[in-house]
Structures are given as C-alpha cells and as structure tokens.
Write a structure and sequence with these properties.
The chain is α/β, with parallel strands linked by helices and 159 residues long. It is built from seven helices and five strands, in the order βααααβαβαβαβ.
C-alpha cells in the first residue's frame, strides 16, 4: 500500500535550495551537463554545505516530533538524475534529515511531479521552476542562494 500524502503538509524542495550547490551550478552553466555529472560523481562522498533553505526545512521536519502523527513530508525535487544525486542523498543522511522521497527528472520540468506528490508548497532556487509550479496551481517561492542568503549558524526553531 503506497504512503498517503493527503494529510501531511507536503513541501517540495530543490536540491540547490536545500544545499549549497552554487559551484556545481556554475559548472553546469559554464561547462554543460557532462562536466557537471563528472564533477558530482567524483565528489559523491563529499558532504554538501547547508543551503539557504536548510534551516527552514529542518524546522518544518521538527514539527513531526511534536505529535505522534506525521505533519510534514519533505520531498527533494531535482532536475538531477540518479547518477548525480548520490551526493545529495549522502548529505541528507549525514545531516540526519528525515527525507526519504525524491523526484529526479533528469533535466525535465519538475512541474508535472508536483501534483503527483500532492505538493502543497514548492521551494526552489530556480525562478523558472517556481513559475512553472505557480502556473500549475501549486504555491511556490524562490529561495535566494549564495553566501549572503545562507547562514548556517542561524537556527529557525519556530514555524
């Protein structure tokens, strides 16, 4: 029986909002998908730094400890493919984030997966993905990335 995503608040988060992937994104934009994939595979055992939305996602996940029911489900929604995503999942495991689901689109649009996962809110660093989500009727917001927007020492403890 599949897990029912009707009751919890379902938040879709892009890997670049959750983790600091700015260097990797520059490789993708400047050198292309093959160089990006090679870089990710070569560095798959290196844990990613926390991204701009990391503390927000952690605070949402902490709501699950407040009651005996699952209140929030976070799903990584990424244009990565399974080969380039191992580093992301290694980082999720290292930070002990309670994230067990992902939609990996191998470069395709994320929007079609949002309704399939019953997403209530989609957060991404990619403005085009955010707009596609809004056009699909999903609440969405752009997460600003980079050093100025990521403060790993600042903790969000209330939602």
């Amino acid at each position: 029986m599949p897990y029912d995503l009707t009751d919890p608040l379902v938040i879709g988060i892009s890997s670049r909002a959750l983790f600091n992937l700015e260097q990797e994104n520059r490789i993708f934009e400047e050198k292309g998908v093959d160089a990006y994939e090679k870089y990710q595979v070569e560095h798959e055992n290196e844990i990613l730094q926390k991204g701009s939305a990391f503390q927000l996602v952690k605070a949402f996940l902490n709501l699950n400890g407040k009651k005996n029911e699952r209140l929030v489900e976070v799903i990584v929604m990424s244009r990565n493919n399974p080969n380039t995503s191992l580093r992301i999942f290694n980082s999720i495991q290292d930070y002990e984030l309670d994230i067990t689901r992902a939609a990996l689109t191998s470069g395709e649009s994320i929007a079609p997966y949002l309704k399939a996962f019953k997403t209530d809110l989609f957060l991404s660093a990619n403005v085009d993905d955010v707009q596609d989500a809004i056009n699909s009727g999903i609440a969405a917001g752009q997460i600003l990335t980079g050093v100025a927007h990521a403060d790993s020492k600042r903790k969000i403890d209330q939602i």
